[in-house]
Amino acid sequence: MTTTNGTSTETSANPSTGSSAGPVTRAEYCVIACADAWRGDGEVLASPMGIIPSVGARLARLTFSPDLLLTDGEALVVGPDGTTEGWLPYRLHLAMVTGGRRHVMMGASQIDRFGNQNISCIGDWERPARQLLGVRGAPVNTLNNPVSYWVPRHSPRVFVERVDMVCGVGYDNAAAAGPSATRHHRIPRVVTDLCVLDFATPDRSMRLASLHPGVTVEQVRAATGFPLAAPDGVPCTREPTAEELRLIREVVDPRGTRNREVGS
Questions:
Q1: What are phi and psi for residue 70, nearest 5 degrees?
Q2: CA-CA distances (angstroms) from residue 153 to 84, 108, 139, 161?
Q3: Which residues share a beta bridge with 111?
Q4: With CB atoms counted within 10 Å of each terminal CB, which end of the chain scores lower, N or C?
Q5: Residues 197, 159: contact at Cβ < 8 Å?
């Protein structure tokens, strides 16, 4: 796909032929985009939330991020196959959380242009139209370690001008709170079923970083509830290598659970 001044001149790129098992699916592009969130992180604790982020974290560990730490979600450090590698009691987990040595990939019921995330309620906090999970650990996560986001259904209901309640802290609110809030604060990327977004802009507002094959700039903008920056020539999300594709299909997720979150 090529773009000119942020406007697609071609509707889509052809998906990779992948291997004899079939072409690369949209879910597999999402796995690759999630995996790349942990690229270069070194020995940090990966905390993926969702099927595709979990597949992505395990893929990253098996390929370009061998020092990545994975857990069983409770108290064990595990390998990509679930084999126990160590003990991580809650006190040590909290030490990693508060020291910038964890990279979380969370979900978002709402997210705005500066990366403020809401998972608590829809509508006014005092009388919400819908009660959701609650704030939970989102403020601590976002102020104390890098946090990326995974949104399996990109829509204006999720990508809003202003979140109804700030749970995960965005760049504007972190900057307003001062150095103690910005020390470990970082939102490397937002991955959706349509694209990859980041905050590599002068004012740290969201921009379009890559498009999954078959998606146009116009589609993403129509599914976003605020003006979205897009550089000239938005690239396609990178192709998985043959080995990555084999690992996804045969080792990490042979049962195809990734397709439950994102269809072909």
A1: -115, 150
A2: 33, 10, 23, 17
A3: 117, 159
A4: C
A5: no
